[in-house]
Structure formats: C-alpha cells, structure tokens
Amino acid sequence: MSSWFKRLFARTSIKKSNTTRGLACKEVVELVSDYLEGVLLPEKRAALEEHLAGCPGCTNYVEQVRLTIGMLRNLAQEPVFPATKEELLQVFRRWRADSSKT
Amino acid sequence: MNDPVAFTDESRLIEMLRNGDEDAFVSLIERHHRTMLRLAMIYVSEPAVAEDVVQEAWLVVLRGLNRFEGRSSLKTWIFRILTNCAKTRAVREKRSVTFSSLSDPEVNFDEPAVDPERFLPPDSQAPGGWISPPANWDEIPEKRFLSQETHTYIISAIEALPPGQRTVITLHDIEGWPSEEICNVLGISETNQRVLLHRARSKVRRALEQYFDEHEES
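YS: structure for the whole thing
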C-alpha cells in the first residue's frame, strides 16, 4: 500500500515538476519561429530559453530552423528573363512616348 | 545591364522614372519583377496570365507615377497596384477562391510543426519530450548545405507549400521584407502572418531534415 502510494506520488510529482518547469519540447517547437523573430512575450521567451539551456534536442531544433532561414536568405536571386525585360522596356518606351505627347 | 545604379534615394529614382530614364526602370524590374510574379501566381494560377497581370501592373505604375505622392514607399505602392490588378483578374476569371486561402483556412486548422509521433505521449514520464530528437546540423559539411542539390530541394519544398505560406515565406525569408509590409500588401493580420511564416518554416525545415537523413543513409 505504501509503496503503491509512493509510486503514485512520484509519478504526479514528475508531472508537476514538468508543468511548473514550463514548456515541453512539443510546445517549444511551436514557438521557435516567433522566438527567432524576437516577437515572443518576455515570459514566454524566458521560459523557452530556460528550456533550451537544459535540452540539447530543442537546441538542435532551434539551430535547424535558424539554418533553414539562413539558406532561404541565400537562395540565388533568379535574374529576370531577357525576353521579359525587353517586353517591359517596350511597355516603358510606349508609356514614355505617350506621356511626352500629352 | 552591368552595374545597376544604386538607387538608395527613392525620390531620385522616382524623378528619373518620370523623366523616362530606362536604367531606373530596369533597376526597378530587377528588384521587384520576380516577387510580383510569385505574388500574382497566388491569385491567378496560370503562369502566362500571371505574366500578363504583372505587365499590366507595371503599366498602371508608370501611368500613376505623376500622381504618386510618396505617402507609402514606392515598393508598397507598386505591390498594392499589383495585388489589385491580380484580384481584378482573378474575379474576372472566377478564381476568387484562391486568395481566401491567404487568411482563414490555412490558419484555422491545427497543423503541428513536428510530427506528434516524435514526442512522448501524455501518460509518459516526460510528456511532450522528444523520442527522436533532431540532429545537430553543425556536423553536416558546409558544402552540402551549399550544394546545387540542396538548393533545388529547398525550392521544391517551397513550391509544395499552400499559397499563403509560400507567399509569406518567400517575401519574408527570401526577399527579406519586414512583416509590416507583408501584412500591408497581402491584407492579412500580423497574427496570421506569423502563423503562416511559422508553418512554412516548419515544413521547409522538415523537408530538409528528411533530405539530410536520406543522404546520410546512402
């Protein structure tokens, strides 16, 4: 009876410490984008940073998202097709001719 | 064109455009045309129609130049014209369905950033903790990050996104637009913008993770 009680107690106290400690990994991943944008509320941010300090998995996750964003930033800017550019220049020249008439 | 003049001063650029300076126009095309096309594609799905819409938008921009008073930035003004042209065309082609996807449906249903299977169940010792934690990407050689294959893979991951997510991640992370401008041009709330960005990034990360994992095995 007493060992049963102890086990139950141990279990609930783990649960409790998990919730008071704040965020679970599953919740952290939903905050990463806002965190990197710097738009998290201060309390959320603090809770997240506290979690990261003790969680290598989530630290890797944040780093992965950061690297993903870095790769997106580096995507080569495709140049505008020369034919498209030429077509638009025609539009421009026509407009210029029209507006100088009026 | 070899070295486009750096038009840091917007009023000078506008002045040059009004005077019919081609270099000024070319620099504007280089800067915005691709993004305009991407944006037009949300409203009208046919690439040829999108091209048409963008060209029409450029003409409206040119014709409106003399009336442009600089109350918004030139860029915001151009993109507002573009979205108006695209919406009008979408309505004409009865494709008004697509742009509603920018706000509600994509945001309203629940879509976890990471497969829930990767986390411990609620009745476990550490509910919601990782079962299979993400790897450390610092161990991946840099040249794999920068490879053409990785590049192609990211592009296809972006193309696979729903329209709203695709647009927001393109404008925000590729083109580097501030959130405020994105909300302005797309007519969405700050919250929706953040949700769309978060979901888009999560999916691209997931696609990359899968890609790197598969390559490790081979």
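YS: worth flagging: The domain at 10-98 of chain B is CATH 1.10.1740.10 (Rna Polymerase Sigma Factor; Chain: A).
IM: good catch. Also The first helix of chain B runs from residue 10 to 18.
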